[in-house]
Amino acid sequence: MAGVRLLNLTKHYKRGSEVIKALDGVTLDIDRGEFVAVIGRSGSGKTTMLDLLGLLLKPTAGNLVIDDVETTTLSDRERAHMRGRKVGFVFQEYNLLSGLNVYENVMLPQRYVKDGAEGKQRALELIDRVGLSDRIKHKPSELSGGQMQRVAIARSMVNKPSLILLDEPTGAVDTETAQQLVDLLKRLNREDQVTIVLVTHDLDIASQASRHIRLKDGRVLSDERVAEAVPV
Fold this sequence. Notes:
10 strands; alpha/beta; 232 residues; four-stranded antiparallel sheet; Rossmann fold; single chain
């Protein structure tokens, strides 16, 4: 089963004469359908790792394989095409367009893929699955924080990606809403077998993932798989 492979993945930056080792030789495999939480202090390399997985950054060294494709040899155009097809993103700030309604925001990634009627039907189904069918024509200003993040989750999945990357997705909502969002992610992970990599500072949220990867100074400090939780 295809998934994600990081092999000595490295991202260094130069700041004057100093070399900043944002990610420093990370090697690990993430199986298709895993729900992975990446944790660590600020500066540990979490966001850099997420940006590399999302093909937003090119590594300084090493290899990154997504669904059996070696991404480090791809051209910028090929990377953009693969990112549009294979990767969905969810951020702490919802990044919804204020002038568009729920359906139009969910459909945004289809501008790059253009699945036609199939994509439209997929968007409607996802909006229903995240519990927002009755808000489909609402603009972001008419939604709560939790509802806006549900829109962002539906948008991330509209192109049927194999990998969903989430950067502090519960950071801007209250505890009850955060749990509802995690329950939704677990259900989508189970039903769609989509791989989820979630970066979070919230250990209560991280504890619900099936695997915990802790980073420190750009390296893997620990990597632990836990018993599968009871399905939501």
